[in-house]
């Protein structure tokens, strides 16, 4: 596919990823952190405030992983070439 035939701008999945990451960031800062601003209950042995932060980080990781996999799938569809895997 030539550069002229490709649509301009970021794909929708990148915009959704950015929106999700910004929402997660808002949950980790002052106004979004207020629901988690307590010690009890404990979640997997962690105070709730720490579990909130760990949950935000894990959610961000999953969002980025899904976006990465979607990008690789889209690149494979465009080029028809599988990515090189070491090993």
Question: What layout of secondary structure does this protein have?
Answer:
Layout lengths: L11 H17 L1 H4 L8 E2 L2 E2 H32 L8
Antiparallel strand pairs: 1-2
Strand order of the largest sheet: 1-2
Using only CA atoms, what is the Rg?
Answer: 19 Å
Q: What is the count of DSSP helices, taking H or I runs of 4+ residues?
A: 3
Biggest sheet descriptor = 2 strands, antiparallel
Distance between the termini: 31 Å
**Helix-strand topology string:** HHEEH
Range of strand content: under 5%
Shape: elongated
Overall average pLDDT:
85
Instruction: Determine the fraction of residues in helical runs and give it as a percent range.
Output: 55-70%
> How many strands?
2
Task: Report the structural category.
Answer: mainly alpha
Query: pLDDT below 50 for ≥5 consecutive residues: which ranges?
Result: none
Total domains: 1
Account of the protein in words:
There is one protein chain. The protein is mostly helical and 87 residues long. The protein has one domain (12-77). It has three helices and two strands; from the N terminus they run H-H-E-E-H. A hairpin with a 2-residue loop joins strand 1 and strand 2 (46-47).
A few lines on this structure:
This protein is mainly α.
Which short descriptors sum up this protein?
elongated, mainly alpha, 87 residues, two-stranded antiparallel sheet, single chain
């Amino acid at each position: 596919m030539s550069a002229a035939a490709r649509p301009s701008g970021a794909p929708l999945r990148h915009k959704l990823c950015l929106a999700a990451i910004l929402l997660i960031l808002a949950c980790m800062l002052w106004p979004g952190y207020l629901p988690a601003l307590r010690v009890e209950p404990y979640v997997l042995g962690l105070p709730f405030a720490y579990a909130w932060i760990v949950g935000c980080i894990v959610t961000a990781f999953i969002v980025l992983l899904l976006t990465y996999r979607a990008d690789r799938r889209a690149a494979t569809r465009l080029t028809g070439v599988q990515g090189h895997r070491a090993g």
